[in-house]
């Protein structure tokens, strides 16, 4: 039996859990596995890492205003990750990438199952977080 009053909290908690896993995954890839992040990866980290703290602060007790701060971070991160995915797929030309020095943004360091890359994982994480936060907003307004 689901408690309808708990649903927004559960959705925000799910968003926090995904943000925490994405943050730990990014740190593992760079610090343990030694993959140097490109400029677009750094931009995505700028939007993902604060979500861990912002969402956690809004969970205890549930503060619906946390969505005002978390949703813009998730949406802008989603846009950057989407740009990065399109760049690695070759849809956006490499000349449009901000990666002028260091690791090229088109570099694929990990590829699982022939298509799952780090930028795709980031995109899916931001997409899921955005969806959970929007669902929480809809549920809490009822």
Task: Tag the structure with descriptive keywords.
142 residues, mainly alpha, two-stranded antiparallel ribbon, 4 helices, 3% strand, elongated
Task: Walk me through the structure.
This protein has 142 residues and is mainly alpha-helical. Helix content is 65%, strand content 3%. It has four helices and two strands, in the order αααββα. The chain has a two-stranded antiparallel sheet with strand order 1-2. Helix 1 runs antiparallel to helix 2 and helix 2 (39-57) runs antiparallel to helix 3 (66-89). The longest helix has 26 residues, at 7-32. The model has no long low-confidence stretch (mean pLDDT 85).
Q: H/E order of the elements?
A: HHHEEH
Low-confidence stretches: none
Q: How many β-strand runs? A: 2
Distance between the termini: 19 Å
Tertiary shape: elongated
**Category by helix and strand content:** mainly alpha
Helix content: 55-70%
Rg: 16 Å
Count up the helices: 4
Q: Which oligomeric state applies?
A: single chain
How would you write the strand order of the largest sheet?
Answer: 1-2
Strand fraction equals under 5%
Report the sheet with the most strands, covering strand number, pairing sense and barrel closure: 2 strands, antiparallel
> How much is the average pLDDT?
85
In a few lines, what is going on in this structure?
The protein is an all-alpha fold. It is 65% helix and 3% strand. The chain is elongated, with a radius of gyration of 16 Å.
């Amino acid at each position: 039996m689901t408690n309808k009053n708990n649903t927004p909290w559960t959705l925000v908690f799910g968003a926090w859990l995904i943000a925490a896993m994405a943050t730990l995954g990014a740190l593992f890839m760079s610090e343990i596995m030694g993959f140097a992040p490109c400029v677009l990866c750094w931009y995505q980290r700028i939007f993902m890492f604060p979500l861990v703290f912002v969402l956690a602060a809004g969970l205890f007790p549930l503060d619906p205003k946390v969505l005002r701060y978390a949703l813009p971070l998730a949406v802008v991160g989603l846009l950057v990750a989407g740009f990065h995915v399109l760049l690695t797929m070759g849809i956006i030309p490499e000349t449009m990438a901000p990666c002028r020095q260091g690791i090229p943004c088109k570099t694929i360091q990990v590829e699982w199952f022939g298509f799952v890359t780090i930028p795709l994982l980031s995109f899916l994480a931001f997409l899921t977080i955005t969806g959970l936060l929007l669902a929480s907003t809809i549920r809490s307004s009822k």
